[in-house]
């Protein structure tokens, strides 16, 4: 069907094939979330690490390096889906900050909330059973159930994170900015280019960005570039000059200065520190 890719796996079956440890990996074009009832010992997303999670949803946007480790009797589901399954929330200007692509991964605890855990869990079980069968309209049911699970997680995340209503104007502009930065951060660093794409002035775009993130558009772009640089430094052996070029910098010395200003370490120092930490 044309509604997008959606695949659901039992976490016990998925992890058993890998000795209950899913090593660090990344999905370039797919979203993934884990709905865990029990047994998730450890979950990492980029530099964040969560342990002993239960009754939670771990959301991973494209481009985030992630891994997880479970015990011998875990209970949960791993859901992988195409962008349009999640992007539908952005298209109509809904508040999606907990799940935006630039925010990295996100963990939401669902033991309480406007949609209770039992409802969320039963919906996911239903979607998984539908996938195993051949009933008519099974994909429509899977999409509907998955959508409600995502809405429950979004609501709960917002209940915990929002301090005041109407936090920012123009959510459509902000959400489109996030999508464009995610698509183009490797080749486009100019604020005016993003403003032109979205049909607004740089002043207005910065105002919207600061209302949501308390940061300028330029800072948001740089944060995304630096986060990708960290991944490449940790998970590849590419020379800094090649890495800088891949991220849109013609001058690798300028990239190194920008990286150090943001992290406190030169790229080579960051790589060495990360490798030493991994070995210890």
Automatic annotation (TrEMBL):
Gene3D superfamilies, sorted: Homeodomain-like
Superkingdom as given in the UniProt entry: Bacteria
Matches recorded under Pfam families: AraC_binding, HTH_18
Keywords in alphabetical order: Activator, DNA-binding, Plasmid, Transcription, Transcription regulation
Classification via SUPFAM superfamilies: Homeodomain-like (SSF46689), Regulatory protein AraC (SSF51215)
GO molecular function: DNA-binding transcription factor activity; sequence-specific DNA binding
Domain HTH araC/xylS-type: 175-273
Keyword Transcription regulation attached: yes
Entry-linked PANTHER family: ARAC-FAMILY TRANSCRIPTIONAL REGULATOR, TRANSCRIPTIONAL REGULATORY PROTEIN
Name of the featured protein: AraC family transcriptional regulator
Organism: Celeribacter indicus
Species lineage: Bacteria, Pseudomonadati, Pseudomonadota, Alphaproteobacteria, Rhodobacterales
């Amino acid at each position: 069907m044309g509604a997008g890719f959606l695949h659901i796996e039992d976490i016990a079956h998925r992890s058993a094939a890998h000795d209950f440890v899913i090593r660090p990996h990344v999905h370039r074009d797919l979203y993934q979330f884990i709905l865990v009832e029990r047994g998730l010992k450890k979950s990492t997303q980029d530099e964040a690490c969560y342990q002993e999670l239960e009754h939670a949803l771990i959301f991973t946007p494209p481009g985030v390096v992630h891994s997880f480790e479970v015990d011998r009797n875990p209970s949960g589901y791993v859901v992988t889906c195409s962008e349009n399954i999640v992007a539908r929330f952005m298209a109509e200007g809904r508040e999606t900050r907990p799940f935006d692509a630039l925010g990295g991964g996100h963990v939401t605890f669902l033991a309480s909330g406007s949609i209770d855990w039992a409802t969320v869990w039963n919906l996911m079980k239903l979607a998984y059973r539908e996938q195993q069968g051949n009933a008519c309209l099974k994909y429509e049911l899977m999409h509907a159930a998955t959508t409600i699970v995502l809405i429950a997680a979004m609501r709960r995340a917002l209940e915990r994170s929002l301090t005041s209503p109407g936090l920012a104007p123009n959510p459509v502009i902000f959400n489109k900015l996030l999508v464009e930065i995610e698509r183009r951060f490797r080749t486009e660093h100019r604020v005016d280019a993003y403003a032109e794409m979205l049909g607004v002035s740089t002043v207005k775009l910065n105002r919207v960005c600061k209302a949501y993130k308390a940061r300028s558009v330029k800072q948001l772009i740089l944060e995304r570039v630096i986060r990708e640089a960290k991944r490449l430094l940790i998970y590849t052996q590419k020379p800094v000059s090649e890495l800088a070029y891949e991220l849109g910098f013609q001058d690798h010395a300028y990239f190194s200065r920008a990286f150090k200003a943001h992290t406190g370490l030169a790229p080579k120092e960051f790589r060495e520190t990360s490798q030493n930490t991994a070995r210890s």
